[in-house]
Amino acid sequence: MLQRTILRASRQASCRTPAFAPLRQPLVSTRAATAPAARWYSDAPAAKEGEAAEKKEEEAPNDEAAKVKTDIEKKDKEIIELKDKYLRSVADFRNLQERTKREIQGAKDFAIQRFARDLVESVDNLDRALGTVAPEKLKPADGNADLIALHDGIKMTDTILISTLKKHGLERFDPSASAEKFNPNVHEAVFQAPQPDKEDGTCFHTQQKGFMLNGRVLRPAKVGVVKNA
């Protein structure tokens, strides 16, 4: 009885052996199913690294361009500052040239100022000598021939001296001769007197003639001014 049971079990086991063959199919199918999943996980990091590299490559030129732009702006600012300094230096140099030129010209024009101030006293003496002779004594018929000759010689000397001084910028002026209006910058009022036939403020008498040196008053003229009021 026992032997029969064992025999049956062995037969059943031998018959069931083919049932284990399909077990290989799930193994193959499992490997086939899992293989793509493994490849997907292996490709994903590579793709992310590529994107990061591309981003770095894009960011690198942008940073370099920004740096170049900043450097250019800085250089432009430096150029503007240097140009401004250059123009200021040129303007200062030109002003210095003009000022130096004026000072040199002024030194030339007024180098003889002290000498001219001392010389006008001698010119005044000649003018006084001419004024001491009355006009009626200078007539050839009634006057002294020697006095007339002396007067003519002094007048000639005065004329030549005034002409020579004028060449060097020294000029004599007589306000009363042209009835000039009183100018405190040029004239010195010594006295005032009424003159019905003249306008107020007019120079009607010259006590001492004035002198100009290259347009500058060397000595003001001493005059009498009209005051009718």
Oligomer state equals single chain
* Number of helical segments with 4 or more residues: 4
Helix content: 55-70%
Strands in their spatial order, largest beta sheet: 1-4-5
Residue-averaged pLDDT: 79
Q: Structural class given helices, strands, pairing? A: alpha+beta
Strand content: 5-15%
Full CATH superfamily name of the largest domain:
Head domain of nucleotide exchange factor GrpE
Pfam family, one: GrpE
Function: Essential component of the PAM complex, a complex required for the translocation of transit peptide-containing proteins from the inner membrane into the mitochondrial matrix in an ATP-dependent manner.
Biased composition (Basic and acidic residues): 46-67
InterPro entries: GrpE, GrpE_CC, GrpE_head
How is this structure best summarized?
The protein has four helices and six strands. The chain has helices at about 1-15, 25-110, 115-130, 145-165, and strands at about 170-175, 185-195, 205-210, 210-215, 215-220, 220-225. Strand 4 and strand 5 form a beta hairpin.
Overall description:
By secondary structure, this protein is α+β, with helices and mostly antiparallel strands. It folds into 2 domains: 45 residues; 117 residues, Nucleotide Exchange Factor Grpe, Chain A, domain 2. It has 4 helices and 6 strands. About 11% of the residues have low confidence. Essential component of the PAM complex, a complex required for the translocation of transit peptide-containing proteins from the inner membrane into the mitochondrial matrix in an ATP-dependent manner.
